[in-house]
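Dear colleagues,

For the upcoming journal club I promised to circulate an example of a predicted protein-ligand complex. I picked one with sodium ion because it came up in last month's discussion. The inputs are reproduced below in full, followed by the predicted structure.
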Amino acid sequence: GSGTKAEPRPAVVTVMGHVDHGKTTLLDSLRRTSVAASEAGGITQHIGAFEVKMPGSKRSLTFLDTPGHAAFKAMRARGAKVTDLVVLVVAADDGVMPQTKEAYSQARECGCPLVVAISKCDLPQANVEKAKQQLVAAEVELEEYGGNVQVVQISAKTGAGLLELEEALILQADVLELSALRDGTAEAVVVEAHLDKGLGPVATIIVKGGTLHVGDSVVVGTLWGKIRTMKDSTGTPINSVLPGQPAEICGLRGVPQAGDALLAVCNEDRAKRVSDARAARKMAPMLQVPHMNGVL
Ligand code: GTP
Ligand code: NA
Ligand code: MG
């Protein structure tokens, strides 16, 4: 397109739910990967962001895999609004647990449409009816009881119900009519960042508007940088990222925090000056601490 008018973008879908209820395994089966099996202790330690071309609709969705709910909470506390939809995963053998309720109340607070995936339906001890009753008791407004929350029964092991889940998500995404400008300076949100021994600071970001390019000068919180390399969620090097898409970026001068906003600016000089000004503003309140009067 011309880039000056808003164009459709992939929905960003956060997968939430109680520990070990099958969030990562669900994403693995959608992506045909095996991340869950290689995780230390089988526990997700960081937010992963994956763009998946959905097998039925051939549409792209960007999924965020969360470790329990803690990191999502931290991001929300920092004002990051990156999620469009939430998949609440509830294991059929375990039912509604404390983190299920937490996740639900967070989804409700952010006002995101929600789809419930009752997972592990292949297990002999699966009890879908019981899980549904527990959801109703937790005030989740299920469609079959006149509410607007669709429930899909799935098994990440057998693949059962995955197409139905896709349909539910695409339907919700279509209702939201998600679009963004591809033109102009990129705006993104940091979903995860760490220091890599070889690469230096590495951040996973999702673009909210504009197009982020290799070589762009950026400001992230009080840090700055120049994008040296980018990879898509399959690890393939890329040169640009569009709205709704995730990427792993290198070239920042420090490790940002989850929820930090990233802004592309016209050049390195500008990036340095904006980040310096932000850092100075952050320091300013310290100069007003009464007991420090006369010291500085
Ligand atoms: P955390 O990231 O630690 O919160 O866990 P998670 O929700 O990502 O769960 P994970 O995908 O790590 O799965 C937990 C366990 O459940 C693993 O042993 C999976 O193999 C198993 N599991 C996940 N989905 C299914 C399923 O559909 N059927 C069966 N039988 N087992 C499943
Ligand atoms: Na796990
Ligand atoms: Mg996980």
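Two points we might discuss: The first strand starts at residue 7 and ends at 8. The pocket of sodium ion (ligand 2) is lined by residues 20, 42-43 (CB under 6 Å).

See you all on Thursday,
B. R.
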